[in-house]
Amino acid sequence: MIKTFYLPGRVCSTVAIREIAAKADTKFTMICLKPHIEWVYLGQERMVQVMEMTDATMVYADHFAKMGESIVEAPVIDYQIGALRDDFDFGSVLLWNTEKLKALVAQMDTNYEFAGLYDLRLRASHAISLQPSAISHIPEYLYYEVEEDTRKSGEKLFDYVDPRNRQVQIEMEACVTAHLKRIGAYLKPGKYKSLPKADDTYPVTASVIIPCKNRVRTIADAIHSALSQEVREGYSFNVIVVDDNSTDGTAEAIQSIKDDKLIYIAQDKTWHAIGGNWNVAIHDPRCGKYAIQLDSDDTYFDETTVQKFIDAFAGLEPEQAIHAAPQYGMVIGTYQLTNMAGEVLPPGIIDHREWTEENGRNNALRINGLGAPRGFYVPLLRTINYPTTKYGEDYAVGLRISREWRIGRIYDVVYNCRRWEDNSDANCNIVAMNRNNWYKDCLRTWELLSRLA
Q1: Nearest CA to 173 among 425, 353, 364, 449?
Q2: Distance from C-alpha of 435 to C-alpha of 325, rounded to nearest angstrom
Q3: Distances from the Cα of 409 to the Cαs of 68, 265, 290, 329, 417, in angstroms?
Q4: CB atoms within 10 A of CB 366
Q5: Phi and psi for 238 in degrees, rounded to 5?
Q6: What percent of the chain has pLDDT over 70?
Q7: Is 102 exposed, middle or buried (0-12, 13-18, 19+ CB in 10 A)?
Q8: Alpha helices for 164-317 (secondary structure H)
């Protein structure tokens, strides 16, 4: 009833997928992405049972991960139409309906070296709109796999922008773009809405926005980095720090810094999270026409970051930019990873050069972030606002802007992303990672539905 095939992980060729389909001659076909699978008693039978009950195209299940001498639970999340990222974690066992597998493979019209399996499951995912159970997650622990990548979540975070993986990323982008065209969600280049006009009531050209909560060890570094910025004659800036009820001395550290450019906002006791803190800052009458991100544990690369953002919004050379209207609703810079001592960490510079004017907003549905630091044209951002959440809020806003307005890029390093043990994504457990990934998949689903509409 089942024939099993082994693939070396999720990165594989179209040729390999076609070969599997050609050799599949049983009712169900199992593709294993890791060589060492041990089954819970009747685990395979349970996967077949669910497959037959749901008439699914593919089913996958929760499992256990063997990490050295320990065994830990490794639950996965439900699939949805917005689960477009190429690193979606199905676990290492995929059970396919062979007839449906062969039909999908027959439609595969591009030979990929790396994106073969990605192409296959994107084609399978399109059936979800007609049959919600087409890709079914079984929330039961049915097998054991050996976990070979034991790095912390913060160390895995930047794999997709590692220059060594560039060719893989190019193929994955081509694959998801073809998928969006097939389903009618592709956005053609060059069609953008006009930005809303800015009135003359903005007190400064730009505001550096620093939301924070319990960052007594790092907040002073961030604030001094922002206050050290230098802008040319005719421009001005301030620094807005929003403290969300810190209890570790952060508020006192902020208030000890005396500078006319520094604005301190203390939040009330209701729920705000990072997104809510941003909303308070951008709607404050002291906010400038542009709002530029600085996280409370990071610093700017040098004193030119704010001016580079101001110039970038106009899309012109600095000497021409002062009288020019903004061309972009959002500008994203380039950062480098460092430790707290300022020493560069691998993979070093993260410039997101995969973003292109022609296809960036389509590829944005595949990747898990658009880059940093981010700057916003405030008259537009005030009409969109941030979601009130502490994770993915920046990605949500970036997706929304990319659908209808242009996003500019700065490819000079303008930001130091400082990695330390208290980063929010430094060492997430599986429950937190699943929650974060599920939320971003939801954002992609909502955005995909908007683009389809």
Answers
A1: 364
A2: 40
A3: 43, 30, 15, 11, 17
A4: 23
A5: -135, 175
A6: 93
A7: middle
A8: 166-183, 219-227, 250-255, 273-282, 305-314
Q: Is the CB of residue 374 less than 8 Å from the CB of residue 386?
A: no
Instruction: Give the pLDDT band (50/70/90) at residue 153.
Output: very low
- The token pair that represents 274 in the structure block: 């990072």
d(CA 149, CA 157): 13
Structure tokens at 30: 């199992």
Q: Which amino acid is at 192?
A: Y
Q: Token digits for 323?
A: 């009288």
Cα→Cα distances 74→90, 291, 411, 429, Å: 10, 40, 38, 10
Residue 450, both tokens = 């908007």
Specify the amino acid at residue 341: A
**What average pLDDT is seen over the chain?**
93
Q: What does the block give as tokens for 146?
A: 């050996």
More confident site: 431 or 158: 431
Q: What are the CB-based long-range contacts (under 8 Å, 24+) for 124-130?
A: 124/57, 124/58, 124/100, 125/79, 125/81, 125/83, 126/179, 126/182, 126/183, 127/57, 128/79, 128/80, 128/81, 129/81
User: pTM score, two decimals?
Assistant: 0.91
Residue closest to 124 by CA, chosen among 91, 85, 93, 97: 97
Q: Which class for 201: exposed (0-12), middle (13-18), buried (19 or more C-beta within 10 A)?
A: exposed
Cα–Cα distances in angstroms (integers) from residue 73 to residues 50, 55, 141, 142, 250, in the given order: 21, 27, 8, 11, 37
Other beta carbons within 10 angstroms of residue 180's beta carbon come to: 21
Q: Which residue has the tokens 């941003």?
A: 278
Q: Which residue has the tokens 């497959």?
A: 51
Q: Which two tokens stand for residue 221?
A: 């570094």
> Cα(417)–Cα(338) distance, rounded to whole angstroms?
6
Residue 117 near residue 19 (C-beta atoms within 8 A): no
Task: List alpha helices for 256-304, DSSP H.
Answer: 273-282
Rounded alpha-carbon distances, angstroms, from residue 115 to 24, 92, 119:
20, 16, 6
Taking alpha carbons only, the member of 47, 131, 132 closest to residue 94 is: 47
Task: Determine contact, residues 319/232, Cβ cutoff 8 Å.
Answer: no
**Which positions ≥6 away from 195 have C-beta within 8 Å?**
325, 326, 327, 329, 377, 379, 380, 405
d(CA 210, CA 244): 11
Which has the higher per-residue pLDDT, 221 or 67? Answer: 221
DSSP bridge partners of 350: 335
